[in-house]
């Protein structure tokens, strides 16, 4: 396992569309393990592969709620319901926060790290995280859909 460099604001790769994973093999599993380690290192709740410079449709999410870490390959949103206005940040925008509108509930299908089909039903924070990370796979960033006037820029302490 290894910590990978997180691509940050201004890196053009963040605006690119990621490609589907054809075969879920050990190399993909190694990438997923690295993504989890990197997400934890920076106290994130989610990370998409593009954020470590890999244009593959892979995301990881950990809400630190005792539930298993979500590791999802080729995710597809099959249903959304309702709407929530939420505060949001992103590991690629370490000093920025804003309000965005996200679905209140979301149903996503994809593959797990063993290549098996899985379905995840997320509400509230999980729905937000899934929508945010899947946006990353299409090169969409939260700062592009924030509610005008809600951007907060936090200064570093150091
Ligand atoms: Ni993000």
Task: Write up this protein.
The protein is an alpha+beta fold and 158 residues long. It has one domain (12-153): Alpha-Beta Complex (Peptide Deformylase). It is 19% helix and 33% strand. It has two helices and eight strands; from the N terminus they run αβββββββαβ. The protein has helices at residues 26-41, 124-137, and strands at residues 46-48, 58-61, 70-81, 84-90, 93-102, 105-111, 117-123, 152-153. The strands form two sheets. Strands 1-2-3-6-7 form a five-stranded antiparallel beta sheet, with helices on both faces. The protein has a three-stranded antiparallel beta sheet with strand order 4-5-8. A hairpin with an 8-residue loop joins strand 2 (58-61) and strand 3. The radius of gyration is 15 Å and the shape is globular. Bound molecules: nickel (II) ion. The site of nickel (II) ion has 5 residues, from helix 2.
Ordered list of secondary-structure elements with their pairings:
Layout: H1 26-41, E1 46-48, E2 58-61, E3 70-81, E4 84-90, E5 93-102, E6 105-111, E7 117-123, H2 124-137, E8 152-153
Antiparallel strand pairs: 1-2, 2-3, 3-6, 4-5, 5-8, 6-7
Short description:
With 158 residues, the chain is an alpha+beta fold.
Keyword list:
33% strand; five-stranded antiparallel sheet; alpha+beta; single chain; Peptide Deformylase; 8 strands; 158 residues; binds nickel (II) ion; three-stranded antiparallel sheet
């Amino acid at each position: 396992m290894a910590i990978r460099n997180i691509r940050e604001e201004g890196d053009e790769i963040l605006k690119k569309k990621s490609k589907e994973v054809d075969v879920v093999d050990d190399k993909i599993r190694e990438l997923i393990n690295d993504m989890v380690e990197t997400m934890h290192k920076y106290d994130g709740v989610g990370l998409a592969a593009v954020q470590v410079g890999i244009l593959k449709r892979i995301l990881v999410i950990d809400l630190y709620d005792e539930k298993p870490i979500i590791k999802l390959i080729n995710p597809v949103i099959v249903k959304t319901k309702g709407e929530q206005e939420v505060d949001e940040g992103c590991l690629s925008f370490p000093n920025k926060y804003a309000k965005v509108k996200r679905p209140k509930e979301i149903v996503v299908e994809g593959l797990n790290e063993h290549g098996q089909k899985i379905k995840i039903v997320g509400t509230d924070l999980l729905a937000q995280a899934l929508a945010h990370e899947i946006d990353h796979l299409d090169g969409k960033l939260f700062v592009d859909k924030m509610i005008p006037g809600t951007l907060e820029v936090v200064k570093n302490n150091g």
